[in-house]
Amino acid sequence: MRKSLGRIFLIVFIFLNLSLAASTYTWSASANKTSAYLHEAIHLKYVCSFSDASELYTIEFNPSGEYEKFTLQNLSQSEHIVDGKRVNSYEFVAFAKEALEIEFAFEAVMKKTTKESIENTVLGRDNVQKEDFTKESFAQKVLKVTVKETNTSLVGNFSIQEKKREPKVKAYEPYHIEVFIKGVGNFDAIKPIEFNIEGVKVFAGEVVKDYVLKEDGLHGEWSQKFAFVSEREFTIPKIEIPYFDLQEQRVRSLSIDTTDVSVEAGFSKEELLDEEPKESFEFDISYIYYLLAFAAGFLVAKIEFKKGARKLNSDEEFRQKVEDAKTVDELMIMLVLKDAKRYEKVISEIETKKVTSLKSAKKLIWS
Questions:
Q1: Rounded to 5, what percent of the chain is helix, strand, coil?
Q2: pLDDT digits (tens, 9 = 90+) for 168-212
Q3: Could you say which of 235, 264, 293 is where a domain stops?
Q4: Closest C-alpha to 59, from 121, 139, 136, 130
Q5: What gap in Å lies between CA 16 and CA 22, rounded to an integer?
Q6: What pTM does this model have?
């Protein structure tokens, strides 16, 4: 009996509090600019402020996604109690797809726990016929932004760098470069760089993207690696990527000057290879394996192998060649020619410079 009375008093207490101090809320919406350039980041912020802690309310609001005129990405969501009052904040970053006036018109759904749900919970009932919530749609303030043309798809503030060594190689030896683009903007608009150089085999690595979304756009770095193989001197063309500079409000260009690569005379491909590779033979891994197969003969020809006292089988001969390898590059060539798939991990570790010691590389093969 006392237990039932206690529950009744608790319900009465809750109902009295709900009637005497019913929660109210207000929404505010703002954009950090009324005018923006095409593809420029637009920061939107929505805040719901309650009159109290408002434990009975749940908010459904996440309009992020692809729209006809813009893309909206979720930046952050937070909930805080300030001076006993609940505050929910929602932040997004929009990128316009067209140069025109854009309207950001969204709705939030306010869900409030019903009195019946509270009563059922307190009294231990399981009344599935009653809804647990009441729902109310709230139309957010419409935010308008005028979008201006830029004539370029890449917009922001960027810088470009090139990582390379001395432009001097031997015939069929790969020459490597890596291009970095750093800054703030819509990195996703940067397309992979392509080279078409007569008499040169060009291998392009996958684009690496490393950036995070902030109020003013994507912050970070974009990079791509390349390898060039030729039997004679060649020139890597100038790289030029146009973009709209938001600080100077004009079209500029990210550029890297041409590179003249000197190639020392060496053996011909026919002299380096014992036999032509079969047409059906392919390395189904990264571009470096094709590159190494192309240059393999030149490096393998430099490797000196010790003669055994007896004729070795293929496995013993391969082990002996590994032991006799003088450099990491020579070792990598042997692994590619032997079985690129089987030794893919070791080859990758060497190529990415995770393993630079010849001793460590050999140990990794047999581990």
A1: 25, 40, 35
A2: 999 988 999 999 999 999 999 999 999 999 999 999 999 999 999
A3: 264
A4: 136
A5: 10
A6: 0.66
